[in-house]
Amino acid sequence: MIIMKLHHYGYAVKSIEKSLKEFEKLGYVAESEVITDVVQRVNLLFVNNGSDHLIELVAPIDEKIESPVTKILKKNGATLYHICYEVESIEETINDLKSKRYMVLLNPTPAVAFNNRRISFLYNPNLGLIEILEK
Predict the structure, then answer these.
(1) Is the pTM of this model over 0.90?
(2) 14 CA to centre of own chain
(3) Which of 43, 66, 93, 101 is the most interior residue, by most CB within 10 Å?
(4) pLDDT in tens, the chain (135 residues)
(5) Strands (E), 25-134
(6) Range of the domain at 114
(7) Which CA distances in Å does 28 have to 15, 34, 54, 57, 110?
(8) Total structural domains in the chain?
């Protein structure tokens, strides 16, 4: 059986700065500087309130440039949109999830936010979007 350890929750936000202020009111603090991922066309910031799990704030680099969160923000505004799990083997996990009817939306790719560890996004209509992060 594949073991998937919860790593973070991803929030699509319009503004990292404005959303950070709201999370700070809830006791969260920034765990990183704002990270720009030019491949994904997003800015990222991780926040934490002392728990084991991070929250990732994800905002488009520019409102005029299409990014993975642009449509989500237009439809829903700021919202939780994915859960990320850390896994030992990204290929093995993808194969396992595909056998359980998950669709791969992003093949394994290095992610600047995780020191170029590989990530993949998958979708299941009964669960939604998940991200897997290779250890």
Answers:
(1) yes
(2) 15
(3) 93
(4) 789 999 999 999 999 999 999 999 999 999 999 999 998 899 999 999 998 889 999 999 988 888 989 999 999 999 999 999 999 999 999 999 999 999 999 999 999 999 999 999 999 999 999 999 999
(5) 29-30, 35-37, 42-48, 54-60, 79-87, 103-111, 117-124, 128-134
(6) 5-134
(7) 16, 15, 10, 12, 27
(8) 1
Rounded CA separation 101/123 (Å): 9
Where is 74: in which H helix or E strand? helix 70-76
- Is the distance from CB of 85 to CB of 135 less than 8 angstroms? no
Q: Cα separation of 120 and 106, whole Å?
A: 5
What is the C-alpha to C-alpha distance for residues 60 and 65, in angstroms, rounded to an integer?
7
Give the phi and the psi of residue 99 in degrees, each rounded to 5.
-70, -15
CATH (domain of 69)? 3.10.180.10
Q: What DSSP element (H or E) covers 12?
A: strand 5-12
For 78, the token pair is 């700021």
